[in-house]
Design goal:
The chain is an alpha/beta fold and about 325 residues long. The chain folds into two domains: about 1-175, HUPs (Rossmann fold, 3-Layer(aba) Sandwich); about 200-319, TPP-binding domain (Rossmann fold, 3-Layer(aba) Sandwich), CATH 3.40.50. It is built from nine helices and 17 strands. The strands form four sheets. It has a seven-stranded parallel sheet, sandwiched between helices. The chain has a five-stranded parallel sheet with strand order 14-13-15-16-17. Strands 8-9-10 form a three-stranded antiparallel sheet.
Amino acid sequence: MSIVVCAEQRDGKLSKVAFEALSEGKRLAAAAGDTVKALVIGSGIAACGDELKKYGADEVVLADNEALAAYTTETYAAVLAAFVAQESPALVLMGHSTVGRELAARAAGIADCGLVSDCIEILFADGDYTFKHPIYAGKAIGTFKISGATRFATLRPNVFAIAEADGAGAVVDFAPEIPEAKVTVKAVNKVSGDRPELTEADIICSGGRGLGGPEGFKLIEDLADSLGAAVGSSRAAVDAGWRDHAAQVGQTGKVVSPNLYVASGISGAIQHLAGMGTSKYIVGINKDGEANIFNVADYGIEGDLNKILPVLTEKLKEA
């Protein structure tokens, strides 16, 4: 049997988590004695083929069609489910991104397969797969198995290592019947910026209600730019209208796992911790010494962030 990795791309550029998923797929395929196939869905994606072969794909499959130029869950899920029906893989992997989490759920439903989302570890032993992901808002790690011949899993970004490995297979086309979408994409408004995408960033600087208002995020942005970091936000700051929902980290926002997470003016509500608790290092900055963020932080600074952040930013610029 094979392992299928659905490699997410945008405008012909593969996401970081696509390579993480492929590297993990290659590792699991080696343990199971299987092959790994990378499926890319979109339009104008020919360049993705050779790039994925560098990371161990035994075969790269391109579902390249103008009808797939704009992402819709309906059409992409139909293509993925059709490929799963054709291949009957043991495992289907993709990133737990905004796209991946809904695409996996829809395609798994069409294919009548089980799904474990937001995995932080996958094991293969005795001919079966075991999946681990955070439960109870990140307070515990659940271990799961899925019945059935094909299993779906989404992988938390920035958790699985990327490893280059030569792939021996070819790049082939896949042209299934694409259903007419019930939803039509009329326009895509792209937000430009030099900062990394939130779910793929190695460093994230986030702010909360403790910033006092939207102008307080200028301190976060300056710190982030000195570190080459992404900017995140707590739900409280988003609900207050200080930041767009796209920046929200937490149970009802984006799940992140950077090497460094700096939380400024964030109390540490359990819903927020669920979205960033697997960060390698956490730094909390808050004037309230009893704030819950200090219970999970590796390093904490108690004090006025309006005084701390400018000094910290200046020192980083000097370094």
